[in-house]
UniProtKB/TrEMBL annotation:
Record's keyword terms, sorted: DNA-binding, Transcription, Transcription regulation
One Pfam assignment: TetR_N
DNA bind region: 40-59
Organism expressing this protein natively: Pseudofrankia asymbiotica
PANTHER family in alphabetical order: HTH-TYPE TRANSCRIPTIONAL REGULATOR BETI, HTH-TYPE TRANSCRIPTIONAL REGULATOR RUTR
Record's protein name: HTH tetR-type domain-containing protein
UniProt domain HTH tetR-type: residue ranges: 17-77
Any one Gene Ontology molecular-function term assigned to this protein's record: DNA-binding transcription factor activity
Keyword Transferase: no
Length: 207
C-alpha cells in the first residue's frame, strides 16, 4: 500500500490500475539495455509519460524497483537453498546444479543484470541474493565449511553456468545449451555429468 506522503505527491489521486506493472516492465527494459547505474528515475518517468510523483507513488527509489524485479528470482533461490539439505552426494549436487540452471534460464536477461552488472553489487536490494549465493556455494561443495579446493570448484561450476547461458547465441538450441552447460558445471564441480547415452531399454525399444 502506498504511503500518505506518496499519495500527497500525486495530489491525492491514485494512479490507475496496472501502473505498477508498467513501471516494472519499463524499468526492466532499461536496466537490461543500458544498466542499472545509467538508468535514472527521470528517464523512466519520461519513458512512461508519468510525472516523477506518479512513479514515487509506487517506488520511492531505484533500489525499490530493483528489489521488486528481483523478487521472483530471489524467492526461487530461497526455496532452493532452504529446501536442499547439505549433502556430499554427487547425485544431490548435480541435481542442485540442474535446478539452479532452470531458475537462471527463467529470465536470463534480468539475471544478467543481477549477477553481471557491477553497479548492482552490494546494493541493499540484492543483499539477500548475496547471502543465498553464499549458501549455494556451501551446498555445491557439500561442506558447511568448504576448504579452498571445494570453494574454488563450486565457484568454477557457477562460472561455467553463467558462461554457458549468458554467452549462448540467440539461435542456439536451448535444450542443447542446457545439457552442455550442466555437463560443464558438473565437470568443474568434480561430479559425474548426466549420461547422454541411450539406456539399454531405449535401445531395445528402438530396434
Amino acid at each position: 500500500m502506498a504511503s500518505a506522503a506518496a499519495t500527497a505527491l500525486t495530489g491525492g489521486v491514485t494512479p490507475p490500475a496496472g501502473t505498477r506493472e508498467q513501471i516494472l516492465s519499463t524499468a526492466r527494459e532499461l536496466f537490461v539495455s543500458q544498466g542499472f547505474a545509467a538508468t535514472t528515475t527521470r528517464e523512466l518517468a519520461e519513458r512512461l509519460g508519468f510525472t516523477k510523483a506518479a512513479l514515487y507513488y509506487h517506488f520511492r527509489t531505484k533500489d525499490d524497483l530493483l528489489k521488486a524485479l528481483a523478487a521472483p528470482f530471489v524467492d526461487q533461490m530461497r526455496a532452493l537453498v532452504t529446501g536442499t539439505p547439505l549433502s556430499a552426494s554427487p547425485a544431490a549436487r548435480r541435481a542442485l546444479l540442474a535446478a539452479y540452471i532452470d531458475i537462471a534460464t527463467a529470465d536470463l536477461d534480468l539475471i544478467r543484470v543481477l549477477t553481471q552488472d557491477p553497479s548492482v553489487n552490494h546494493r541493499p536490494a540484492t543483499a539477500e541474493h548475496t547471502d543465498l549465493s553464499r549458501r549455494l556455494l556451501q551446498l555445491l561443495s557439500g561442506q558447511d565449511e568448504p576448504d579452498t579446493t571445494a570453494r574454488a570448484r563450486a565457484r568454477a561450476a557457477l562460472g561455467a553456468i553463467w558462461a554457458g547461458l549468458v554467452h549462448a547465441a540467440p539461435d542456439d538450441d536451448p535444450t542443447a545449451v542446457r545439457a552442455a552447460t550442466l555437463a560443464a558445471a558438473c565437470g568443474a564441480l568434480g561430479v559425474p555429468a548426466p549420461s547422454t547415452r541411450p539406456s539399454l531399454v531405449n535401445r531395445a525399444a528402438a530396434r
